[in-house]
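Workshop exercise sheet. Pairs work together: one partner reads the sequence aloud, the other fills in the structure field after running the prediction. Swap roles for the next sheet.
Pair: D.N. / O.F.
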Amino acid sequence: MKSGKLQKKASNRNLLLRIYFISGSVILLVLFIIFTNIVINNVKKDVQVVPDLYSKFVGMPADVNLEHFLFQYFMQEILPKIDYPIILTDSLKSPFSWENIDIPKKNFENLELHQQDLLKSMVKKMEANHSMIPLRLSREDPKIYSYVFYGDSNTMKQLKLMPYVGMLLIFLYLFLGMYGIFTIKKTERDILWVGLAKETAHQFGTPLSSLSGWIDVMASKISGIKRKNELQEMLNFMRNDVEKLNKIASRFGKVGSIMKFQPCNLNEILQETIEQFSRRLPAASKKIKISFDSEIKDKPINLDPDLIKWTLENILKNCLDSMKQKGGIIAVKAFPHKHKYYIHIADEGAGMQKKMFKKIFQPGVTSKERGWGLGLSLARRIVEEYHNGKIRVLESEVGIGTTFEIVLPET
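Structure field:
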């Protein structure tokens, strides 16, 4: 994948994210407007009772009984439209009638005990909210004959919910904004990282091809030279080093590309990688040994062997670096469990605090004086993004050591 395609891909992703963010914001705004309009319309319906009553009162003939008219209007126009609970009580606040409550309408004494308790608790709650009307024969009469207790209507409940709905929508709006910005930045960072890896592989390619050619030329010129065997051995060393660089360039070139997996023997990959590191141990430290315990022999798994080797090398190198001062054993163990393959790599190095378990997989995080802190970041990308597996610090203790865990699916 060339840099132009990478830029186009990044541009398309950013455009889609912006469209998603703008669309989400518009949808949230529309939903809030719709909810507000519903509440306003319900308020209008509740308030409409007053002008309706006034218009009928104005148009009422002079010989009509006012009390009969008001009673009839209340029973036919107001009461059927009431959607909130009403409880009528006597002067001692004992219920004897109720509306819009899911309790059978019969004598209070004949109700079940939990139904009586429910009505009493509703009365107490309404009284605490001052949602009660005392009934007297006249304004001058100090005696209260009964009470009317009432709850909140649906419109009132919606009005009470409005601030919370508004806060929720604002939170969602901010969350979408932060998520969009974070995702766009992450996408740009990933594209930059992939582009850097591919450009590195491309830049490696030309000088490596040239070096391979010059080694072949030199090999053809040493036939008549003294100390031919010694020079041939030196050329072989040079050829091996060039092959290693070619392999590194190939690995960088695979970053960001579509993987083509093949059935591989994971046990052989582990054994080969460990043997390579074991041969390097005398130069690194005579105090360090690597042990290998495997329960996955002859079990094939679909993966990219070169990238998995790269991952193992990065982790083993990290273990070696942490043990240079004290030595010890690097224990590698592989075993199957529930259609997955587990690889545990435990060292006896410096260890780390728990807060570093996830941070060490981030680019640029390193405890070494030299280095870019990209090895474990690459390992995580290879395992999790390319092979749909998991990599983590299983356990670690400062001064005791660290155990890394790699989990790979069977297919």
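Discussion prompt: The chain has nine helices and eleven strands. What would you look at next?
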